[in-house]
What we know:
The protein is an alpha+beta fold. The protein is built from 28 helices and 29 strands. Strand 10 (284-285) and strand 11 (291-300) form a beta hairpin.
Amino acid sequence: MELAQDDRLAAVLAENAALKLRLSQIEAGTSNDSQVRLDTAVEEIAGLKKALHQTESRYRLIVESAVDYAIIAADLDGVVTTWNDAAEAVLGWSERQIVGRPIATIFTPEDVEDGIPEREMRISLSMGKASDERWHLKADGSRFFASGEMMPLYGDDEKPVGVLKILRDRTRERKEREELEASQERLHLALEVSELIGTWDWDIPGDSVYVDARFARLFGVDPALADKGVPIETFLRGVHPDDLDRVSATIKTAAETASPYAQEYRTVDGDGAVHWIFAKGRCFHDSAGKPLRFPGAIVDRTAERAREARQAALLRLGDELILGEAQASHTTKALRILGETLCIDRVGYASVDTGETAATISSEWTADSATPLSGTFPLASFGPDFVEELRSGLLVIENTDEHAASPAIKEAWSEIGIGALVNLTVVEGGRVRVILYLHSTEPRQWSDEEIAFVRDVLNRSWAFTQRRQTEQALIEAERRLRLAQESAAIGTFDYDLRTGVLLWDDRARALFGLRAGVPVSYEDTFLPGLHADDHERVAAAVTAVLDSTSSSEYDIVYRAIGLEDGVTRHIHSSGQTLVEDGRTVRFVGAMRDVTEQKQSEERQQMLTRELQHRVKNTLAMVNALANQTLRRATNVQDGLAAFSARLIALGQAHDILTQTSWTSAPIAAIVANSLKTHQPEDETRISASGPDLRLTARQSLALALGLHELATNATKYGALSNDSGHVTIKWGLAVVGGTRQLTFTWREIGGPPVEAPETRGFGSRLIEQAMAAEFGGEVKIDYRPEGIVCTIEAAVTDEPAEDEEHGR
């Protein structure tokens, strides 16, 4: 139980003072009750003395039992008069050493210089209480972080005779909180850095799936709607129809069995674009074994899939060209591979006349939904600069409507159904001879990888058609092998067991950190280059495959330590043996670098662990906010409404911070976003002004929650509760002692008369304590009769993002 929070000590002191006052009135004969008889007065005096003795006993019991709380009393001059055992245990001074010394002794030198001890005393004497969280000083000179309260002590005449300060060591909690915040920030930054990752959390009993914006867009769901939680059926509608049954069945199984969930499938976004994603997660059950939550993450593999498709298309192109019998067949196959791989509507060749005035279609492939082109087209129809653009060798148009210089040109594109195009040209002697055109009926963006792929296909097919059939097969076979090696970074080896000679190509040498051409051998190069932890396993695998009587296969992943560069690489190696007369004579195979793949797997595992950690911490934070809100609510409905409103305020601040990658946010945006639900349409009730200033992520969240509490209070009881009141918000910057000082003021005018509350609720503490802690300054709420005034004073820097880093 928190002594300061429950105000037990303050209550006992107040009760003691009231009893003393009543006793003095009766003993002095000043009681207002004129009907009190003498014997009754005697009885009441005896009862009051007994009650007074009980309150003093309770006071001593509380002080003596508070083993976790340092309780210190000082007189009005700030001189220590009382020091309990817990104070000695926490701060190190004994009662004999500290009594009679200034209470400022336990404050840090910088706080003493800033007058913090005196200010706390002034606030406690004037306001009845002064709360703080700050660093304090121990007897050995070390520091500890403590939360504390200071309250006045009253004498028999009801006048203050000193102050009582209660401290509790919070150093460990602060360190744990900072470590938690740092961990959360690292996870958040990791997710933000990766543009390929999205996350989900499915509340199964409530059938609400909460996802981030990236996840929502991949499934064609409005991010704002998804942020509030929607049924899983909403996201299943975004799964590609061909994958829907499989994905639904796998999700159902994972939810029922709590088994790991991992699936790769396609989604369709709001624009109709298809994405390949890999999803991984796990369902958690409650103590009764019923599905409770199903969190996870997805990785957008669309670009990787497209890259794989282009590589496969190049291999397929080589196969198709080799098997083709005529040049026309070669060309048609190349065009079909281009169109199908890039998912476009039309691909073809056109020859240009000698005067560069017209282009004639010579060969073309079209999708089923596209209209084929044929005949001759005047080039001037597409603009006076069109031919000159073709002479550059490459013309890329992502939107023909925007590119067209006139309605006539736009109409020319529209007549043949072109919304976007790529033209690659063969230019000889400064003249355009051949155009390879790729058409899309809708506008689209063409990536550099797609253009490179088109160039590669064009170069391969064009070169192939210039050679004889017998030469073509050899050339394409060589190219196919080179493409496979290049795309997979493959190195080759050939070990002749008859001579003991080991041959490596330069890629294989590079995998073991060697320069090109360096001599190699099995005993002096391969074995010494293996990682110590993999040496025995790999050597055994080689021995097994070289055994002519064994059926072992050589397909293994191991680590190599660069013999010259010292770099550790993961290598996937496979090979086969040649056996003659029952004896293995040759061992040939390939090896490739899979380091990036291994690192990617490790990163994925790390991100999954971080995601699980973040989800747990986020739920803990929401749970704490719910507990604080609902515990003080008068009924369930009010509690839920207040809790929902606070979460919405927190979410609005999150929206702004997400736009800036959680580094900083403009104060004006935080103010506007936090108050938009309280601002009427004419925007006359709340006005805000101040210079441009960016706040750190933590300051932004604290300010958003604080403004929400102030606006909610103003709407219920203050200036926004009637038709004439209004609120003015102003902030400014000033340079004080070389430091930029922020002053932020919330002022209510024209509302009902204000009276200071007898007790502070959760909202007030949230404003004063949370905002003060996050801003590193002072937050004060002044309950003036004409309206509440809340003031924040804190130092700010020029680089809030850096502050956020250091504050983690």
